[in-house]
Amino acid sequence: MSAADDKAQLDAPQPSSKPKKPLSCLSCKVRKLKCDHERPACTRCAKTNSECIYPEARRKPKLLQSNVKELEARIAQVEGYLKEAGQSRPDTTSKDILVGGLVSEDCVSGKDQQSNGITWEDDAAFQNLNGLPSTFAGEDQLFSHDVVEDNEAPEGAQLLFGLAGLDNYAGASFESGQLIDLGMSEALPPSEMIEDLHTSFFSTQYHYMPAVHSGRYCKAFYGNSLNKPPMCLQYAIWAMGALWHPKYDRIADVFYKRARHYVETDELKGDGEHFITIAHAQTWVLITAYEARAMLYTRASMSAARGSRLVQMLALDRIDAPDDLLPPSLGPPIDWTELEERRRVFWIAFSNDAQGSIATGWNSIIRTEEIMTRLPASEAAFASGQEETAPFLDEVMKGAPYSGFTGFLVINEMLKSIMSHVHLIKSSDRPEDAINGAFWQRHRRLDNQLSTLFLFMPESFRLPENIRDPLATYINLNFHACVICLHHVALEKIETHQLDDSLRKECHSLLKNAAEEIASIAKLTSHRSSLFSNPLCAFSLYCATTVYVYLAKQDPSSGINSKDMSNLELIINVMEAISRIHLITSAFLQQACLDIDKNGLSSIIKLPNLYQYRDLFGGPASSIPLMARSPISRHTQMSPPLPGRLPLDKPRP
């Protein structure tokens, strides 16, 4: 193009720009009304006789400094993640992960995705969940690990964190960035589900594991993002709330796996400062409870051991020690409620450790004689924050008053003592000497302890007045189960060594009375299936069946009387109904049916469903705890930690 042409183009008239819209007066602008722009006063201001002022110029838009700072901080955070990922995984392929509507770069290999322990099969559990919002159960959107490759975001991927319809849900956004830290890209459940799971946990599961103060937890959960409970604790509570829930049971395992993933990942951070916390101890005790209820006993024992060691690292077993020379791991509690919550976390860990020992026979990690922490206060005091002084465990075993969750701990301590007495008999115990033998001295001491505990049982635990209280029912069931376990082994020694018949009659009477009490409680509470979800409640029902099998075995020709037969049928029917929901009760039901069959009592004790349940878990291998094993049940073998693979020289097919 020539210079003349350029000059001609410059001299050509330029198109006039679009005229700007006149400015509205300040009065109309503030009230968001349409202004007719009349001068000197618009029609609205003239009618109201108000001052009409027009701005001299348009206000220039300002950049919000706070937004700029937030974006800069977020970009710096993402750059830090990239730098850490590049240092730890230099050979991984670069992939784009969509976070909060932004495309950020992270290095996530397929191997790492598998190591998370959270598989695509877990997400499939959400697809068939009826009754959930479509935004939560939508295909390939939620609870997934969508990785965006080649800088191309799939359609709808921007909803991973900012979900349509979930913007107002509490917990639906990830302000704390915890999920980003783990390289995860999953959304939390919608608020309706979270509310349901919280309600389910604190109404049905909390009675057996009151380690989390509901008010403090909810305040932290719905409060400042910096003070939110760690993801591992949130998922552990949701897993327990979903367990056996009529609507959410199918996704309980997904929540459980994520809780384990987060708590194990926290252990690998730093030098331990990320997991040596009360919240992580709470997570481990809840994970242990979940695994025990799912009959994952080997895994539950390992989780219980981790929880027990963690509370010892936190010095929760020495909270009330007069002089503690060990360095502290926690700061002082802000109030008595926090101090009480620490006590409860320790005692739940103690309970899990004791139950693991009862079930497997493995040694306890927490030794009773070394505990210097008072028992939990009453539930009313804990809920209200009213300070209350509780006794020590050894004082309660001697008759000191107690309340609330302490009854649960007393039961565990009694069962642990009886288990040691029954299954760790030495040759020096001389069970043939009913007067001076160490075995019978321990027997009388434990029997006196049980009598003392029955005598000084708090009024709030006595039946039938408190039959609607789950804790009262649980404590009474298991006190009677303790009596049965103690006197079963006593009867065995009496018959083996042909001791005085008066001892046999006394043990026989105590066994029968305890079984009748359990049958009576079962009759009153059989409609409450959630009550028997605790492993020890199903254990007590099974203990009662062993008494009636023993009575029938004493006289195979005539069997048992009509009253005893009615009680046995009632207990079997209750176990059958509950076993449809609870797997643990199914294992005990199978063992009860095997006891009847293998002791040659099928013709005397005629149960229509006997053969249906006897091979439920593989016939000769038994899934019942070691504590439940008596002379009646020794026809079955105890399942090893790796069933089907032991012994190593001749593994079972």
UniProtKB/TrEMBL annotation:
Q: Cross-referenced PROSITE patterns, in alphabetical order?
A: ZN2_CY6_FUNGAL_1, ZN2_CY6_FUNGAL_2
Gene Ontology cellular component terms for the protein in this record = nucleus
Q: Does the keyword Transcription regulation apply?
A: yes
Show the taxonomic lineage. Eukaryota, Fungi, Dikarya, Ascomycota, Pezizomycotina
Name the GO terms of the biological process aspect.
DNA-templated transcription
Domain of life of the organism in this record?
A: Eukaryota
Q: Where is this region: Disordered?
A: 1-23, 633-653
Q: What InterPro entries has UniProt attached to this entry?
A: TF_fung (IPR050815), XnlR_reg_dom (IPR007219), Zn2-C6_fun-type_DNA-bd_sf (IPR036864), Zn2Cys6_DnaBD (IPR001138)
What Pfam families would the database entry show?
Answer: Fungal_trans, Zn_clus
List where in the cell it is found. Nucleus
Annotated protein name in UniProt:
Zn(2)-C6 fungal-type domain-containing protein
Which residue intervals define the domain Zn(2)-C6 fungal-type in the entry?
24-54
Q: Where is the composition biased (Low complexity)?
A: 13-23
